[in-house]
Amino acid sequence: MLKQIQTESIASSIHNKDLLEIMCTFLNTKDHANFGQLAYVHGRIFGANEEISTRLAAAIELLVLSFDIFDDLEDMDNEKEPWMQISPSIAMNAASLLYTASQSILSEMDNGDQLLKLSSRLSMQAMEGQHEDLANSADTEEKCLEMMRKKSGSLIALACAMGTCCGRKDPLPEVEQYAYQIGIAAQTENDFRGLFSTEKNDIRAEKNTLALLYINRQFNSHSEDLLKFFRSGKTFTEEYGTLEAYKTKLFNAGVIHYLNVIKQIAIQKASSILDQLPLQADQIGILKSHLIINNKKGDEKTCKKS
Fold first, then answer.
1. pLDDT per residue over 127-138, tens digit each?
2. Which CATH architecture fits 2-219+254-305?
3. How many CB atoms within 10 Å of residue 50?
4. Banded pLDDT at 31 (limits 50, 70, 90)
5. Are 106 and 119 spatial neighbours (Cβ–Cβ below 8 Å)?
6. Displacement of CA 76 from its chain's centroid (Å)
7. What whole-number distance in Å separates Cα of residue 69 and Cα of residue 3?
8. pLDDT score at 155
9. CB 105 within 8 A of CB 5
10. Could you point out which of 110, 202, 276, 297 has its C-alpha 20 to 30 Å from the C-alpha of 268?
11. Contact 208/139 with Cβ under 8 angstroms?
12. Dmax of the chain from CA atoms?
């Protein structure tokens, strides 16, 4: 249903067959709709009907896909994605179209003006966070957490807040507050996985992630060894032989424990705010199942891998 709404929105305005084919290829890479699901669930919880909630979810998935493409083009990673295998200028143009299509769907909804204002504010906040990430200016833990709040938290806040507004017709500040914390938790998990990725440039570029900032403080000899490894240009298998040996080094350096603590603090903050919402306990439980339990599942995977 989401892809049908997305395709119809694009096809109604775009008549170039080559461009339409590119757009469909990009859309078909999405095998999940996490942000759209958050928008849909918040819409339904706060009183929006199924049709409105579904159209909102479709719009938000288009927006988030455009941001994913921009992010990959800016970071020059995730080379397997179709937008990384064509001309960057064509991919950038297609991503701009996806973003514009998302705004077009929003503008046609009953409270379109309000949704567009939310979309603009939170999208610009995410772009500001992306700039700070690209500029590598977050050189302290505090600055890094703020960058993560903007870059990742703003997009989750966008999905949750817009879904809420479709039901309530007015914003609920607590929704954005817990969404930011979920964004920090998700980005922390993503940064951890980035330590093992062969497609991410973060390690080679020595980007100021929480992990690298922690290691740079060189609390022990293991941290010193990791810094030398990151700067060597080697893969972790070349340096440590096996994945398990590399994980052991990260564990001994304290990186895994540190990132898990940061993540759990963010999740606990989000949970506390959720408990204060003017909703019934079962409704809060539904929101938590989509926001927090999914994060904890990711944490369990991390622990198993570690």
1. 999 999 999 999
2. Orthogonal Bundle (1.10)
3. 11
4. confident
5. yes
6. 17
7. 17
8. 96
9. yes
10. 202
11. yes
12. 60
Q: What confidence tens digit (pLDDT) does each residue in 267-291 have? A: 999 999 999 999 999 999 999 999 9
Rounded Cα gap, residues 192 and 43, in angstroms = 31
Q: DSSP readout, the chain?
A: -HHHHHHHHHHTT---HHHHHHHHHHHTT----HHHHHHHHHHHHTT--HHHHHHHHHHHHHHHHHHHHHHHHHHT--TTSGGGSS-HHHHHHHHHHHHHHHHHHHHTSTTHHHHHHHHHHHHHHHHHHHHHHHTT---SHHHHHHHHIIIIIHHHHHHHHHHHHHHHSS--HHHHHHHHHHHHHHHHHHHHHHTT-SS--TTTTT---HHHHHHHT--SHHHHHHHHHHHHT--HHHHHSSHHHHHHHHHHHTHHHHHHHHHHHHHHHHHHHHTTSSS-HHHHHHHHHHHTHHHHHHHHHHHHH-
- Phi–psi pair at 88, nearest 5 degrees: -55, -35
pLDDT of 97 > 90? The answer is yes
